[in-house]
Structures are given as structure tokens and as C-alpha cells.
Specification:
The chain is an alpha/beta fold. The protein has two domains: 203 residues, HAD superfamily/HAD-like (Rossmann fold, 3-Layer(aba) Sandwich); 78 residues, 2-Layer Sandwich (Alpha-Beta Plaits), CATH 3.30.70. Helix content is 43%, strand content 19%. The protein has eleven helices and twelve strands. Strands 5-4-3-2-1-10-11-12 form an eight-stranded mixed β-sheet, sandwiched between helices. The structure holds magnesium ion. The site of magnesium ion has 6 residues, from loops.
Length: 300
């Protein structure tokens, strides 16, 4: 898509988002950071069926040639994110910052490693406890290694499923020293560590010496990223902007923490394509990152 065609297809609000992002991304070195599910990939009935929007994928690939860093920061396992995107030039932060893959090299937070056993035990207990109450064909439990997701999107009555599931998940997490956090038709279990998308993004900015960072996200776990970037901006350290990708079920906290919004995954993809087209037409802003080994030093 050319700059002209992408601009012609966009609303004034979308063009304002593109301009805000471009202002930040021209602060070199800079990064475009995005969540996956609900942001560049439409929410699917199950996580295994989700596919990254082709336009977003094209834009991310172009941006790897224009920007210092293009990163995915997701709740998925980083290898899963890498498989979905298939772009080796991206940094893949996964499991809410507990893990990442940089230039093909995986890293896991050392303290999160210890959670693998407790997590598997807690997920098994949740499944047993739910199925003891009802057959729950809607129940989908995803063990992502150092975090886990219990999905109830397939439930005929999601509110009833959440009411059944949440106290069970909370009790199992407490028994095994884990934390629970809600999301869009999911309950997440994670290690009780002060690691989240916000700390992960702050570490990326610091480790890579970034002067600008844009983050696209759609859910409550992305709010940590939005707030981290807002704090850096308020410090005068880094230019940032945060874009909420909206859906009918978008939590209010997401909108409140973001600077701007786009109306869904397709609009997000269109926005990314317009950003990529503009930056590509301007030429590379900086040599794509030779990502440093400091990212693997275990400090985040
Ligand atoms: Mg998401």
C-alpha cells in the first residue's frame, strides 16, 4: 500500500494517530512495540486459530528496515509469538515480560523458571475443580511454560463461566504462590514477580537507549505498558505515545491509560501500514538494531 492510498482510506482520527506515532518514531533511536491478540490479530474462538492481520505483518516487516527496534510484547509464549509473526528481525517479548527471544536466542527470567512446576499443578487443579462442578466443554487451559491462561470465550454464558472460574483460579494460584490477573474472556496465572509488560517495555527502552517508543495494545495487561511509557514521557526521558485498539469488550482502564485509540484490529493494521509507508518513503531513520547482548543479562 502506498502512502497516498493508505492516507486516502483513513479517517481524520486515524490520520491523527499516524501523525502522533510518526512524531515519536522520528526520535531516533526509536521502537514500535505491539501486543498481538486483539491488537494486530483478531480475537479468535481459541488462541490456536488466531492469525496476525496480513497488513499489520507487512507493516511490521517494512518497519524492521526503518526503525531501530520493532518488538512484540505479548502474553503468549515468545516462541508462539515468533511463529505467528514469522519475522526474524523482531524482538519477541512473551509471557508478559517473563521471557523473550532476541535474534533467535531465548531468555527466561530466572525467577520465573521456578514457577513451571507450581503453574502446571495449579492449572491441573483448576481444570479438576471446574469439571467437578460441570462438564465445561468451553474450558480451555493453556500452559505457556512460565504463565498459564484459562480461556472461557467458548462458554455459552461467559459471565457465569467467569463467576465459576475466578474463585477457583484464585484459590489454586494462592496455594501455589502464583498471581491471577483477568483479561478479555481469560484468567491468567503468573509467577508472583514484579514483572509485567510495563517493566518489559521499560527495560527495552533502557537497554536499547531508545529516545522514542510507541506501543499498541488492547487489554488490561497492556495498561502496565501504557503507564510505563507515560512515566518515561513525564520524566522527559523518552518521547512516547500509547494507542488502544478498541473492541466492544475493551476494559475502561485500557482507554483511560492510552493516549489515542483506533477502532479495532483492521484499523490498527491500516494505521501501521500508513506509518510504515511514511517512514519507508523517508528512508531508514537508523540502522536496524544490532541488538545487544545486555538484553540477555538476566536483569530484564
Ligand atoms: Mg491483547
Amino acid at each position: 500500500m502506498t502512502d497516498a492510498t493508505s492516507a486516502a482510506a483513513m479517517t481524520p482520527d486515524q490520520l491523527a494517530v499516524v501523525d502522533a506515532c510518526l512524531d515519536v518514531l522520528r526520535q531516533t533511536p526509536s521502537a514500535l512495540i505491539t501486543d498481538i491478540d486483539g491488537t494486530v490479530s483478531a480475537i479468535a474462538p481459541t488462541p490456536f486459530e488466531a492469525v496476525v492481520h496480513a497488513g499489520a505483518l507487512r507493516a511490521l516487516e517494512i518497519l524492521t528496515g526503518c526503525l531501530h527496534t520493532v518488538a512484540v510484547v505479548s502474553g503468549r509464549a515468545p516462541a508462539d509469538g515468533a511463529a505467528m509473526c514469522g519475522l526474524p528481525g523482531l524482538i519477541y517479548v512473551g509471557n508478559h515480560g517473563m521471557e523473550r527471544i532476541v535474534q533467535g536466542a531465548p531468555w527466561t527470567h530466572p525467577a520465573a523458571e521456578a514457577a513451571r512446576g507450581p503453574l502446571a499443578a495449579a492449572l491441573a487443579e483448576i481444570e479438576a475443580a471446574v469439571r467437578a462442578q460441570e462438564e465445561a466443554p468451553w474450558l480451555l487451559i493453556e500452559n505457556k511454560g512460565v504463565t498459564g491462561t484459562v480461556h472461557y470465550r467458548l462458554a455459552p454464558d461467559p459471565a457465569a463461566a467467569a463467576a465459576l472460574l475466578e474463585p477457583i483460579a484464585l484459590a489454586a494460584a494462592e496455594r501455589h504462590g502464583l498471581r491471577v490477573s483477568p483479561g478479555r474472556m481469560i484468567v491468567e496465572l503468573r509467577p508472583a514477580l514484579a514483572v509485567n509488560k510495563g517493566t518489559a517495555i521499560r527495560d527495552l527502552v533502557a537497554d536499547l537507549g531508545l529516545r522514542g517508543a510507541v506501543f499498541f495494545g488492547d487489554d488490561v495487561t497492556d495498561v502496565d505498558g501504557f503507564l510505563a511509557l507515560r512515566a518515561l514521557r513525564d520524566d522527559g526521558t523518552v518521547a512516547t505515545t500509547c494507542i488502544a485498539v478498541l473492541a466492544p469488550e475493551t476494559p475502561e482502564a485500557v482507554v483511560a491509560a492510552a493516549d489515542l485509540s483506533v477502532a479495532g484490529v483492521t484499523a490498527c493494521a491500516l494505521t501501521l501500514e500508513a506509518i510504515a509507508a511514511r517512514l519507508e518513503s523517508e528512508g531508514a531513520l537508523s540502522t536496524p538494531a544490532e541488538v545487544r547482548n545486555e538484553l540477555d543479562d538476566g536483569n530484564g
